[in-house]
TrEMBL record:
Residues 1-25 are annotated as: Disordered. Residues 144-365 form the SUF system FeS cluster assembly SufBD core domain. PANTHER family: PROTEIN ABCI7, CHLOROPLASTIC. This is Fe-S cluster assembly protein SufD. Belongs to the iron-sulfur cluster assembly SufBD family. It holds the Pfam family SUFBD_core. It comes from Agromyces bracchium. One of its GO terms (biological process) is iron-sulfur cluster assembly. Residues 1-10 have a biased composition (Polar residues). InterPro entries: Fe-S_cluster_assembly_SufBD, SUF_FeS_clus_asmbl_SufBD_core, SUF_FeS_clus_asmbl_SufBD_sf, SUF_FeS_clus_asmbl_SufD.
């Protein structure tokens, strides 16, 4: 069974003076929430690379994940023990599948059409807890996966989804945060150098609930993690954070969407990345939509990129749509630049060698995101991983 949705209020060409182009009549989607959505891959046209959601991506590198047949069997999973957190496998027709969102592009729909069972991570209990779910041994054949993370009302937890080893994976991750719950989800990509990972994350946040969603992308040839958050009920709050380090020939991409759909909701989006080596590439697109019912919204998004060598490219595109004037505030920012020469001079003037000074500057730049994870052991491990990236090992 598939689900397809599309707004019936699309504008006509006459309303906007749009004339037919050489490839047919074109009526652009006027707002982020009007994009076509379906769980059936057959509802999406083949990808050309010219589509708005794919124009920054190396689509030829993962054609098998967007158009080919996928292995949708269970993936190998290991999880740490945590009181109040349980893991199980549920069938694709379970009522808990599909509550957080619906695919807006072909890779996500192909994964949805192909998976057999979903991994369910259930969180309960008001005491704080941490669980790490590690996926490994996926191999080099194209695969699909589906994960549902459900936080019961007033529960608290940190859930880490970690990917290691080889992978050619397209997947969907649903996050449902119940009333008054406080959930942190860390998506950690530490794949091997030739791996490809495409992921769509969908989150629905309930009344007075809070989600901290953190994307950390270090390994993999092509990694594309696109989180969408629906602030569906009054008082919902999201902190969307991202950290990435792109090396030579590596493509790391994030397309972030935050939909304020209820009164007095709050969002903060901060993604920071570093790039070094010939052909290193990062893409960040940030869409924030403040709907006409989202009075009292407080929103801000930013992306910062630090370029360490020549031959790199960072694309950064913030977008903000506001459909009501009754808000507390909204804004966005984007910056891409090289080292701060004044910081380097300050450190060198105090006897610190240039190479070490550069590492300290980069570490300080990226540590802002790492330090918000809330788990000292994981934070320290990521700092060591970033040091290794800086040293090229």
């Amino acid at each position: 069974m598939s689900t397809a949705m599309q707004s019936t209020a699309l504008p006509t060409p006459e309303q906007h003076g749009i004339r037919a182009h050489s490839d047919g009549p074109i009526v652009p989607v006027q707002t982020r929430s009007e994009r076509f959505r379906s769980t059936d891959v057959a509802d999406f046209a083949p990808i050309t690379g010219r589509e708005h959601e794919w124009k920054y991506s190396p689509v030829a590198a993962f054609a098998d994940l967007t158009s080919g047949e996928l292995d949708g069997s269970r993936v190998e999973v290991e999880a740490t023990d945590a009181t109040g957190v349980s893991l199980s496998w549920i069938p694709r027709d379970d009522a808990r599948v599909g509550r957080a969102g619906t695919p807006e592009e072909r890779a996500s729909a192909n994964a949805w059409s192909s998976f057999g069972e979903a991994l369910l991570v259930e969180v309960a209990g008001e005491e704080a807890k941490t669980v790490t779910v590690t996926r490994s041994g996926l191999g080099t054949a194209p695969r699909a996966a589906h994960t549902v993370i459900e936080a019961a009302p007033f529960s608290q937890a940190l859930v880490v989804l970690r990917g290691i080893g080889d992978a050619r994976l397209t997947e969907n991750v649903e996050v449902v945060v119940g009333e008054g719950a406080n959930l942190t989800v860390v998506s950690l990509q530490e794949w091997t150098d030739e791996s490809v990972h495409l992921a769509s994350h969908f989150a629905r946040i309930g009344r007075d609930a809070k989600l901290k969603h953190i994307v950390v992308s270090l390994g993999g040839k092509v990694v594309r993690v696109n989180p969408s958050t629906h602030l569906a009920e009054q008082g919902a709050d999201v902190e969307a954070l991202g950290l990435y380090f792109s090396d030579a020939g590596q493509h790391l991409e994030q397309q972030v969407f935050v939909h304020h759909d209820a009164p007095h909701t709050r969002s903060r989006v901060t993604y920071k990345g570093a790039l070094q080596g010939e052909g290193a590439r990062s893409v960040w697109i940030g869409d924030v939509l403040i709907g006409n019912t989202a009075t009292g919204t407080d929103s801000y998004e930013q992306n910062r990129n630090l370029v360490l060598t020549d031959g790199t490219r960072a694309d950064s595109v913030p977008n903000l749509e506001i459909e009501t004037g009754d808000i507390e505030g909204a804004g966005h920012a984007s910056a891409t630049g090289r080292f701060d020469d004044e910081q380097l001079f300050y450190l060198q003037a105090r006897g610190i060698p240039e190479d070490e000074a550069r590492r300290l500057v980069v570490r300080g730049f990226l540590a802002e995101v790492v330090q918000q994870i809330g788990d000292a052991e994981l934070e320290e491990r990521l700092i060591r991983a970033l040091e290794a990236e800086l040293q090229g090992s």
